[in-house]
Specification:
Length: 273
């Protein structure tokens, strides 16, 4: 058997796996779109009909349930592997600021899927999005386009018993291993008097990192692993604490076993896709 004939099975397997990856990518995008638009459509009348004390818990339950189903489906078809055990340990621990690093667009989806009583600070254009906006408003998520109002709402949510998802970087990572941290986390924690629980998101793929095109297929399966970091007491000095938090993330993530810089080539090499 010559070398060309021997290579044909491997070429065929790679071709079939590439077709599978395309199918899995589109399946995930379409499923997320259907779930988000469906819940958003239901949220519009519920937002206006229900009192806030009912609407907010129902809104958060709906988003958590939808995202959990979506990630379960990705796992079922073999597109992703998830280890959420560390996040699950935070579920009943009362008011906390959940402060993860932010390597990909899926980070908020994954965290929200495990923590049902979670408020979230979101970009204003996401709150205004037709797929996510109505559901986000019903769930009491907080817009980030008015700094003072954002901080007041975040403090109020924590004092009312919610947990709060807040990415210290403010946006997806572009400077490995983390961007410069913003002072919002320290300001909110200090005013609310709640601890900051750091969370490390580790992945072996740059999928949906900053600059990754939405329809560009990644190598699959993709692994996501969560682990808990240090829990910081409410800070007294926001500036000093923010610098300390950034150094802590850098030290903890630099040699993380599963962490891949957002702009790194995939495990198959730069020419894989």
């Amino acid at each position: 058997m010559n070398a060309h004939a021997a290579s044909q099975p491997g070429t065929l397997r790679r071709g079939l796996h590439g077709l599978y990856e395309i199918g899995a990518l589109w399946f995930g995008l379409i499923l997320l779109g259907i779930l988000s638009l469906g819940w958003s459509s239901l949220s519009v009348p519920l937002y206006y009909l229900l009192p806030r004390r009912w609407a907010v818990p129902l809104g958060r339950w709906g988003i958590t349930t939808g995202f959990r189903f979506y990630l379960w489906a990705l796992s079922l078809i073999g597109a992703c592997r998830f280890d959420f055990s560390a996040l699950d340990a935070l579920r009943d621990q009362g008011p906390l600021i959940i402060a993860p690093n932010h390597p990909s667009m899926l980070d908020a989806v994954m965290v929200i899927s495990r923590l049902p009583n979670l408020a979230c600070i979101m970009k204003a254009n996401i709150v205004d999005n037709v797929f996510l906006g109505a559901g986000a408003r019903m769930a009491g998520y907080i817009r980030n386009d008015a700094q003072l109002s954002m901080i007041k709402q975040a403090v109020a949510e924590l004092r009312n018993g919610s947990q709060l998802l807040l990415f210290p970087e403010g946006t997806r990572t572009t400077r490995w291993p983390v961007n410069a941290c913003k002072g919002t986390t320290a300001l909110v924690a200090g005013r609310a008097g709640v601890p900051i629980q750091t969370v490390f998101i580790e992945t072996d793929s740059a999928y949906l990192s900053k600059g990754w095109p939405l329809f560009k297929r990644p190598s699959m399966p993709i692994t996501y692993r969560f682990r808990l970091g240090r829990r910081f007491d409410p800070p007294q000095k926001a500036g000093v604490f923010t610098a300390e938090l950034e150094r802590y993330f850098i030290d903890a993530l630099r040699d993380a076993p599963h962490f891949l810089p957002p702009n790194a080539p995939s495990a198959d090499g730069p020419e894989s896709h």
